[in-house]
Amino acid sequence: MKKLLLLSAIASIAMADCSYKIHKLERELSYAKEYGNYYRVRGLENALANVKAHCGGYYDYYARKDAIKYKIDDLEDEAERKIDRIEDKLDELNDMKDTMSKEEYKRKKAELKAEKNRIKREYKEQKRSLKETYNY
To answer: Which of 78, 105, 82 minimizes the C-alpha distance to 92?
Structure first.
Protein backbone atom coordinates (compact mmCIF):
# COMPACT_ATOMS: atom_id res chain seq x y z
CA MET A 1 0.00 0.00 0.00
CA LYS A 2 2.86 2.36 0.85
CA LYS A 3 4.49 1.58 -2.50
CA LEU A 4 1.28 2.41 -4.32
CA LEU A 5 0.99 5.76 -2.54
CA LEU A 6 4.63 6.53 -3.26
CA LEU A 7 4.22 5.69 -6.95
CA SER A 8 1.08 7.79 -7.26
CA ALA A 9 2.84 10.71 -5.54
CA ILE A 10 5.79 10.42 -7.93
CA ALA A 11 3.43 10.25 -10.92
CA SER A 12 1.54 13.35 -9.80
CA ILE A 13 4.80 15.25 -9.29
CA ALA A 14 5.98 14.18 -12.74
CA MET A 15 2.69 15.32 -14.29
CA ALA A 16 2.89 18.65 -12.45
CA ASP A 17 6.44 19.04 -13.76
CA CYS A 18 5.20 18.19 -17.26
CA SER A 19 2.41 20.75 -17.02
CA TYR A 20 4.92 23.38 -15.92
CA LYS A 21 7.28 22.56 -18.81
CA ILE A 22 4.44 22.65 -21.33
CA HIS A 23 3.13 25.95 -19.95
CA LYS A 24 6.61 27.49 -20.02
CA LEU A 25 7.29 26.35 -23.59
CA GLU A 26 3.89 27.59 -24.79
CA ARG A 27 4.55 30.99 -23.22
CA GLU A 28 7.99 31.21 -24.87
CA LEU A 29 6.43 30.10 -28.16
CA SER A 30 3.86 32.90 -28.03
CA TYR A 31 6.65 35.46 -27.43
CA ALA A 32 8.68 34.07 -30.33
CA LYS A 33 5.63 34.26 -32.63
CA GLU A 34 4.88 37.77 -31.44
CA TYR A 35 8.38 38.96 -32.34
CA GLY A 36 8.55 36.98 -35.60
CA ASN A 37 11.53 34.84 -34.60
CA TYR A 38 11.01 31.97 -37.07
CA TYR A 39 13.94 29.81 -35.93
CA ARG A 40 12.99 30.13 -32.28
CA VAL A 41 9.38 29.22 -33.12
CA ARG A 42 10.52 26.07 -34.93
CA GLY A 43 12.79 25.03 -32.09
CA LEU A 44 10.14 25.64 -29.45
CA GLU A 45 7.51 23.76 -31.44
CA ASN A 46 9.86 20.76 -31.65
CA ALA A 47 10.65 21.00 -27.95
CA LEU A 48 6.95 21.23 -27.09
CA ALA A 49 6.15 18.19 -29.22
CA ASN A 50 8.94 16.23 -27.52
CA VAL A 51 7.79 17.20 -24.02
CA LYS A 52 4.21 16.24 -24.83
CA ALA A 53 5.35 12.92 -26.29
CA HIS A 54 7.91 11.90 -23.68
CA CYS A 55 7.13 13.69 -20.46
CA GLY A 56 6.02 11.69 -17.46
CA GLY A 57 7.47 8.42 -18.65
CA TYR A 58 4.33 7.44 -20.54
CA TYR A 59 6.17 6.80 -23.79
CA ASP A 60 9.35 4.85 -24.08
CA TYR A 61 11.49 6.46 -26.77
CA TYR A 62 13.19 3.26 -27.84
CA ALA A 63 9.97 1.27 -27.97
CA ARG A 64 8.44 3.95 -30.20
CA LYS A 65 11.51 4.01 -32.41
CA ASP A 66 11.39 0.22 -32.79
CA ALA A 67 7.68 0.30 -33.55
CA ILE A 68 8.28 2.86 -36.28
CA LYS A 69 11.12 0.76 -37.68
CA TYR A 70 8.86 -2.29 -37.84
CA LYS A 71 6.10 -0.30 -39.54
CA ILE A 72 8.56 0.99 -42.12
CA ASP A 73 9.89 -2.54 -42.69
CA ASP A 74 6.33 -3.81 -43.19
CA LEU A 75 5.62 -1.03 -45.69
CA GLU A 76 8.83 -1.85 -47.54
CA ASP A 77 8.00 -5.57 -47.67
CA GLU A 78 4.52 -4.84 -49.01
CA ALA A 79 5.89 -2.47 -51.66
CA GLU A 80 8.49 -5.05 -52.72
CA ARG A 81 5.79 -7.73 -53.08
CA LYS A 82 3.68 -5.45 -55.25
CA ILE A 83 6.68 -4.48 -57.38
CA ASP A 84 7.65 -8.15 -57.79
CA ARG A 85 4.14 -8.93 -59.06
CA ILE A 86 4.36 -6.08 -61.56
CA GLU A 87 7.78 -7.26 -62.73
CA ASP A 88 6.32 -10.75 -63.22
CA LYS A 89 3.56 -9.21 -65.34
CA LEU A 90 6.21 -7.32 -67.33
CA ASP A 91 8.04 -10.59 -67.96
CA GLU A 92 4.78 -12.22 -69.12
CA LEU A 93 4.14 -9.23 -71.35
CA ASN A 94 7.59 -9.61 -72.92
CA ASP A 95 6.83 -13.28 -73.59
CA MET A 96 3.57 -12.30 -75.30
CA LYS A 97 5.16 -9.47 -77.28
CA ASP A 98 4.92 -11.29 -80.61
CA THR A 99 1.21 -12.06 -80.21
CA MET A 100 0.03 -8.45 -79.89
CA SER A 101 0.32 -5.23 -81.81
CA LYS A 102 3.22 -2.91 -81.17
CA GLU A 103 0.93 -0.15 -79.85
CA GLU A 104 -0.89 -2.48 -77.47
CA TYR A 105 2.44 -3.81 -76.14
CA LYS A 106 3.78 -0.30 -75.56
CA ARG A 107 0.57 0.81 -73.86
CA LYS A 108 0.47 -2.17 -71.48
CA LYS A 109 4.16 -1.83 -70.71
CA ALA A 110 3.74 1.89 -69.96
CA GLU A 111 0.78 1.16 -67.67
CA LEU A 112 2.75 -1.42 -65.70
CA LYS A 113 5.76 0.88 -65.36
CA ALA A 114 3.52 3.74 -64.24
CA GLU A 115 1.96 1.44 -61.61
CA LYS A 116 5.42 0.42 -60.42
CA ASN A 117 6.50 4.06 -60.09
CA ARG A 118 3.27 4.91 -58.24
CA ILE A 119 3.94 2.16 -55.70
CA LYS A 120 7.49 3.42 -55.16
CA ARG A 121 6.25 7.00 -54.64
CA GLU A 122 3.55 5.87 -52.20
CA TYR A 123 6.09 3.89 -50.18
CA LYS A 124 8.47 6.83 -49.97
CA GLU A 125 5.64 9.18 -48.95
CA GLN A 126 4.34 6.79 -46.27
CA LYS A 127 7.87 6.29 -44.91
CA ARG A 128 8.50 10.04 -44.79
CA SER A 129 5.14 10.62 -43.14
CA LEU A 130 5.83 8.01 -40.44
CA LYS A 131 9.24 9.49 -39.69
CA GLU A 132 7.83 13.01 -39.45
CA THR A 133 4.87 11.98 -37.33
CA TYR A 134 7.01 10.30 -34.72
CA ASN A 135 10.12 12.51 -34.92
CA TYR A 136 12.18 9.46 -35.87
So the answer is: 105
